[in-house]
Amino acid sequence: MRLDAIDLRILDAIQRDGRITKLALAEKVGLSPTPCWLRLRKLEKAGIITGYHARVALRRLAPVASVMVELTLANHRQSDFDRFERAVAAIPEIVACWAVGGGVDYILKIMAANIDAYQRLIDNLLNRDLGIERYFTYIVTKTVKEEAVLPVTSLLSPDAPDSE
Q1: Using CA atoms, how far apart are residues 31 and 33, in angstroms rounded to an integer?
Q2: pLDDT number for residue 163
Q3: Best label site of 23, 78, 119, 152, fewest CB within 10 Å?
Q4: What angle do CA 96, 71, 107 make, to 5 degrees?
């Protein structure tokens, strides 16, 4: 799907404020409300907009441990990856998991109540025989930057090739 400058402004605006009104969104992107709303619906139906969420300041509610984990599987068959990924998808404390190229297979972001809770989670993964060969733990001591807003405007331009 080819996006133009107005589509990009719509994406930027709704990322910054998912509760923006139809009228305010239309004004922000320079359209009248009906065409703006039709474009928004088109972006949703195309799967470009996948949902609307609230960002929660969890640390204001309770202390939490943020942990990054590099993880390597012992075997690299598709069934090994599939089994591990199904297990990870079912664990709410694993808030992100990326399959990566290079020296490790996955990088996980885990939010746990504390370090003991994190270790119990890892022990549980190891006990489930998911084929984990090794893992390296990195405790986050300070969040310098964590953006939920993607830089769509700087990454895409109206002249960008179709991503279909």
Answers
A1: 6
A2: 45
A3: 78
A4: 30
